[in-house]
Design a protein that fits this description.
223 residues, mainly alpha, 12 helices
């Protein structure tokens, strides 16, 4: 994190990146993820535009990356360990996704523009990495420490849940985003059912894999 006590003119480029990140979406909502938006954010912070340009030499995609990183941090700040400790894993994931939505709530138009930019063919790989980073941040905050295949499958599934929830939220006009909340709950319920089913199919550590047993479970699922 950037030290707020350091004057903007004395901050390093990395510190300026952190300081500028939460200021960018308010400008990008009107001017896109553009040099104009960066210039306005720099002015709000009190630094010259040319110095701000050094922070994001590759333009809009880097600016979006920094904003999403600030959302990661906002999520962590909203859900300290004491708050998560009493929650079940399902509740932790749900709370983390919702904390991200709350953090982005003032900047829905900026998110629309960000997703449109990341959807361009030349930015697709960067967009996929950012989606994975968000899912990884959520699972880590929730306390997941898996390192096997589950590490990747959990994050891949959450990328889909999180992405679909964001798209639902962008068009949600219900009070308190109630429709999005319901959508998210249904998606997480589906994931939890899948995880339980997967647990029945994957042998415990030390057990030998049996293809016959697997086929039997697929044909006659446990009740």
């Amino acid at each position: 994190m950037s030290d707020p006590g350091i004057p903007p003119a004395e901050k390093t480029l990395d510190e300026l990146r952190v300081a500028l990140a939460p200021l960018l979406p308010a400008e990008a909502a009107f001017d896109g993820w553009s040099p104009v938006a960066l210039t306005r954010a720099a002015a709000a912070l009190g630094i010259p535009a040319d110095r701000a340009a050094l922070v994001f030499p590759k333009g809009g995609v880097e600016m979006i990356d920094a904003w999403f990183a600030s959302i990661d941090e906002a999520m962590r700040q909203a859900l300290p360990p004491a708050a998560l400790g009493a929650m079940k894993m399902r509740e932790r994931i749900r709370a983390a996704v919702w904390a991200r939505i709350v953090a982005m709530a003032p900047d829905r138009e900026a998110l629309r523009r960000a997703l449109a930019l990341l959807a361009q063919p030349q930015n697709a790989a960067r967009g996929a990495r950012l989606a994975w980073r968000a899912a990884d941040a959520i699972w880590r905050l929730a306390g997941d420490s898996t390192t096997d295949f589950n590490h990747y499958s959990k994050r891949a599934i959450l990328v889909g849940v999180y992405g679909a929830t964001l798209l639902a939220w962008l068009d949600d006009e219900s009070a308190g985003f109630a429709d999005t909340a319901g959508f998210l709950d249904r998606r997480i319920d589906e994931v939890m059912r899948f995880e339980k089913a997967k647990a029945r199919l994957i042998p415990a550590p030390g057990e030998r894999f049996s293809f016959v047993r697997l086929l039997g479970r697929l044909r006659y699922p446990a009740h």
